Structure to design on (438 residues):
């Protein structure tokens, strides 16, 4: 009797586990289809000509994003894990490898706009070819279970594609901004808020805190390991800096006064002749802004966006404040003090609004932190080529937190670490101020 019960128990347990795994497999296919379809949906408003242009070295053409995200699944999953997989075109490994030294030589990043061939149709055929084989693989439950780590690799590929969805919009915004017609990527629904909520200062206690990814959900390797850190008491602004506030910095001669700037920042201001955020321009004596909805009058209540780390730091100096460290940002975001949950996907930063203590910690603008992008204590890159995903970029860049209006819904977390070089401005990056409590 005891053995029968044990046997029955084991059987029930086995069935339950299989059911969970089957559901997970089905969820993975559904997620694969959904993420892949979203990339095509983002490209859909664009013509074939739009999708070939590379307006600066940091920008990749839309067509390249469509192909490169497909190459990722072909290279890291299908080649090794799909028996009998036929590579779509052996030359694509050279064209669409972004930066993986272990995968071989590649086309120069700054010359991606020269790839008038393969044609857009051919890239769509490449996507369809890889999607068909990926979906067959994901439907093969036995194969999924046989290959250790396969589901995790698929999840990495999907998160990689979501990063490129944001890059696609960042990049096409830059491309369209270079056109004197200032064309819109999409028409805008809704209108500006009348004014931003008042800026308040929220206090957080110092001491030993834990930061880094916790829990079982997906994260990138650079969010691990979770570890202790020491913080002094600090205060954080309740919302990001607005366009109106940043306009006051400009009006006060912010771009003409070296004392607010780091030396490298001041040199960049002079070399690049910066006098405002990336997409601001003057028309009839008024500041205008190029957006994914085309050119329009600056929204004074919206968070300032498309500023470099240098500009964020200079603004903070002018305001008598500083930027938060990434540990301060994450501690505040996970303190239960504010609205840190995901917000709907938007094409433009929403006007600051809401009654939470901390507002727009996610989903408005990426927020520059004062922290250099380096490895957490105990960090180890993943073995193999995918180990090049994050670790090798941990020098000379600064961390941004929070996600922005063009970050896919559900993609960002409080432990998520974005990173850019301090001079770069084409990301949807803004400013949240901090100050010492003392
Ligand atoms: Fe990539």
């Amino acid at each position: 009797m005891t053995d029968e019960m044990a046997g029955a128990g084991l059987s029930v347990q086995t069935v339950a586990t299989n059911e969970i795994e089957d559901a997970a497999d089905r969820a993975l296919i559904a997620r694969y289809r959904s993420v892949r379809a979203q990339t095509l949906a983002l490209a859909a408003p664009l013509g074939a000509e739009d999708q070939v242009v590379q307006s600066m070295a940091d920008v990749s053409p839309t067509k390249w994003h469509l192909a490169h995200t497909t190459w990722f699944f072909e290279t890291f999953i299908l080649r090794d894990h799909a028996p009998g997989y036929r590579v779509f075109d052996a030359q694509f490994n050279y064209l669409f490898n972004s930066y993986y030294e272990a995968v071989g030589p590649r086309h120069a990043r700054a010359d991606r706009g020269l790839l008038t061939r393969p044609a857009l149709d051919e890239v769509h055929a490449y996507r369809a070819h890889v999607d068909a084989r990926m979906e067959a693989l994901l439907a093969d439950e036995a194969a999924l279970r046989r290959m250790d780590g396969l589901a995790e690799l698929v999840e990495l590929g999907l998160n990689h594609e979501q990063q490129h969805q944001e890059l696609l919009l960042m990049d096409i915004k830059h491309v369209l901004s270079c056109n004197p017609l200032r064309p819109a990527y999409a028409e805008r629904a809704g209108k500006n808020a009348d004014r931003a909520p008042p800026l308040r200062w929220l206090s957080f206690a110092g001491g030993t805190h834990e930061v880094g990814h916790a829990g079982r959900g997906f994260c990138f390797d650079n969010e691990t390991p979770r570890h202790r850190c020491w913080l002094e008491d600090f205060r954080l602004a309740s919302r990001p800096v607005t366009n109106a506030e940043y306009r006051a910095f400009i009006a006060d001669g912010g771009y003409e006064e070296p004392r607010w700037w780091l030396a490298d920042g001041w040199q960049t201001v002079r070399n690049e002749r910066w006098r405002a955020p990336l997409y601001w321009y003057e028309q009839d004596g008024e500041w205008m802004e190029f957006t994914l909805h085309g050119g329009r009058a600056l929204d004074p209540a919206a968070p300032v966006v498309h500023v470099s780390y240098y500009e964020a730091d200079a603004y903070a100096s002018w305001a008598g404040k500083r930027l938060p460290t990434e540990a301060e940002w994450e501690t505040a975001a996970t303190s239960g003090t504010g609205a840190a949950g995901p917000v709907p996907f938007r094409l433009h930063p929403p006007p600051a609004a809401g009654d939470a203590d901390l507002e727009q910690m996610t989903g408005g603008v990426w927020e520059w932190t004062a922290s250099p992008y380096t490895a957490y204590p105990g960090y180890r890159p993943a073995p193999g080529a995918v180990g090049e995903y994050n670790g090798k970029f941990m020098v000379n860049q600064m961390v941004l937190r929070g996600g922005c209006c063009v970050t896919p819904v559900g993609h960002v977390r409080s432990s998520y670490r974005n990173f850019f070089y301090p001079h770069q401005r084409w990301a949807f990056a803004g400013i949240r101020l901090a100050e010492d409590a003392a």
Summary: Residues 68, 98, 160, 164 surround fe (ii) ion (CB under 6 Å).
